[in-house]
Specification:
It contains eight helices and eight strands. It is α+β, with helices and mostly antiparallel strands and 186 residues long. Strands 4, 5, 6, 7 and 8 form a five-stranded antiparallel β-sheet that branches. A three-stranded antiparallel β-sheet has the order 1-2-3, covered by helices on one side. A hairpin with a 2-residue loop joins strand 5 and strand 6.
């Protein structure tokens, strides 16, 4: 094994390492959430093994795009971006709506901001915003490690995930509503 590929050339070894990282923040996650939908791999490109990301072509085939990363970064990339699988595998059990002091930013309007508790454990924030011709929704899971912090430290980290500029709800909005602190177990 080379220094660049400390776990060999089998992608599953790297998915296992990524799953260990994912499991730390999402204890209810299962490994199958990662393996099926990954767009990463390890393959020979120009005669040398490379970490790659696959892009789909118009003809239904996939092309590898070499990544200039080390094994740690590759594992981090494998571990992130599984919100859809996490959400699908862990239905919402309970939620609270959070009121923003400012629901409008330019022509964008905040339609929904919810903090959600899930059946298998864990919390997420769900946001919907838009204007007259565009919009979207996003779910962001809150890592379990955040709940080991004090309330103030939690808010600092949480606002890094769901930044007030993008999602309208700021620290003052979260501190103003006592239900939020209790709902999140602080």
């Amino acid at each position: 094994m080379s220094e660049k590929f400390p776990y060999g050339y089998d992608l599953n070894a790297y998915i296992d390492k990524a799953f260990e990282q994912m499991k730390a923040d999402f204890p209810w996650a299962t490994r199958d959430m990662m393996g099926e939908r990954t767009c990463f791999g390890i393959e020979k490109v120009g005669g040398e093994y490379q970490y790659v990301r696959y892009y789909s072509n118009f003809d239904g085939t996939y092309s590898p795009d070499p990544l200039n990363v080390d094994s740690e970064e590759f594992i981090r990339r494998l571990a992130e971006g599984h919100d859809w699988e996490l959400e699908r595998a862990n239905p919402v059990k309970e939620c609270i709506d959070v009121e923003a002091s400012d629901r409008c930013s330019g022509d964008w309007f905040l339609e929904c901001y919810q903090i959600r508790k899930h059946e298998k454990g864990g919390y997420s924030v769900y946001v919907t915003a838009g204007n007259r011709s565009a919009g979207g929704s996003k779910t962001v899971f809150i890592p379990a490690s955040y709940f080991k912090l004090s309330w103030e430290e939690f808010l600092d980290k949480y606002l890094g995930l769901a930044t007030p500029g993008s999602f309208y709800v700021g620290r003052a909005d979260l501190e103003r509503d006592p239900r939020i602190k209790e709902f999140l177990g602080f």
